[in-house]
Amino acid sequence: MMNDTPSKLYKYTSPDSAEQIVANSSLQWSSPLIFNDLEELQKVPTLSPSIEESMPLFIDKVFKCAFISKKKNTAQYSKEFAEVAEATKFAIKQGIKEQHLRLSFPKLENTNRIAQNLKKLVHNAFSIPQLRILCLTEANDNETMWTQYASDSTGCCIEFTPGTSSDSYFSNAKKVDYHAAKPIVGSAYDMLVHGVPDNIAEKAIDAIYYAKPPSRSHEKEWRLITSKPDENGKLFSFHEFNTQDLTAITFGHKAEPSFIDNLSEIAVQKYEHIRIYKAEKIDSETQLVCLR
Q1: Furthest-apart CA pair in the chain: how many Å?
Q2: Which of 140, 148, 134 is nearest to 222 (CA)?
Q3: Mind spelling out the 3-state secondary structure of the chain?
Q4: pLDDT digit string (tens) for 127-153?
Q5: Per-domain residue ranges for the chain?
Q6: What is the rounded distance in angstroms from the CA atom of residue 206 to the CA atom of residue 223?
Q7: What pTM was computed for the model?
Q8: Are 231 and 259 in contact (CB under 8 A)?
Q9: How far apart are CA 120 and CA 114, in angstroms?
Q10: Using a CB cutoff of 8 Å and minimum separation of 24, what contacts does 196-205 make?
Q11: CB 133 within 8 Å of CB 224
Q12: Side-chain half-sphere of 122: how many Cα atoms within 13 Å?
């Protein structure tokens, strides 16, 4: 997945959350268990051909290797495949007929171990209770998001500039992909024969955690994900950011004057470089008024 992080990332937020973010220079990273989108993390990636579809091809390959009389270089094969091929060759030498061996393949311990390892890698890239996800967007002018995430425009939209500080975690954000199809992360046949590639876990993670249905594409979302094994019982964590990373605040057009004054006062004291705006509805169009 390419990762050309936008020059600006935004967080829509309610008045109460905004004060916590600005005052503490920290953001809440949430467990997916409390996400309000029922389709979140439901696209379990798949292999094509699947494990079941690959088994006949896998068995053919085993016998092809087993019947080769000369010593064959097995470096190109996985350890499990080489063990199955060697066991098959031994069984043939003992006079066991090929058709009987073929019927026994689904019961072979090594074959089942390969299949189970593949399923575990693809379906359990991360343990969901341990995950912490920070959702951001590259869009600061989306009416739907102002309504849904900024308390019907009474909150604000906070701007972060990735890379402003040397320790900025915003630079590591990955873009969410919007698609309806179940993602394919590899070929089960190739993995059964040659082993599981090093990047399969990363592909599975991208397919599960950086994917949403097309109906959400207006969000133009970017995500940061981490795992907190020691926080299994918690539903969120707070992570501080460098004060240089927060570069602007835009208040919604329905924001209360007291909220604007209070948050602006906190922001000016903590963020010397801060720019502050107020969205205003002028002739049915939203325009930004610079407050600082």
Answers
A1: 89
A2: 134
A3: CCCCCCCCEEEEECHHHHHHHHHHCEEEEECHHHCCCCCCCCCCCEECCCHHHHHHHHHHHHHHHHCCCCCCCCCCCCHHHHHHHHHHHHHHHCCCCHHHHHHHHHHCHHHHHHHHHHHHHHHCCCCHHHEEEEEEECCCCCHHHHHHHCCCCCCEEEEECCCCCCCCHHHHCEECEECCCCCEEECHHHHHHHCCCCCHHHHHHHHHHCEECHHHHHHCEEEEEEECHHHCCCCEEEEECCHHHEEEEEECCCCCHHHHHHHHHHHHHHCCCCEEEEEEEECCEEEEEECC
A4: 567 888 999 999 999 999 999 999 999
A5: 9-44+128-183+200-290, 46-123
A6: 11
A7: 0.77
A8: no
A9: 10
A10: 196/78, 196/117, 196/118, 196/121, 200/121, 200/122, 201/121, 201/125, 203/45, 204/45, 204/121, 204/122, 204/123, 204/125, 205/125, 205/126
A11: yes
A12: 24
For the record, the structure tokens of 114 come out as 């390969």
* The token pair that represents 219 in the structure block: 């969000």
105 pLDDT tier (thresholds 50, 70, 90): confident
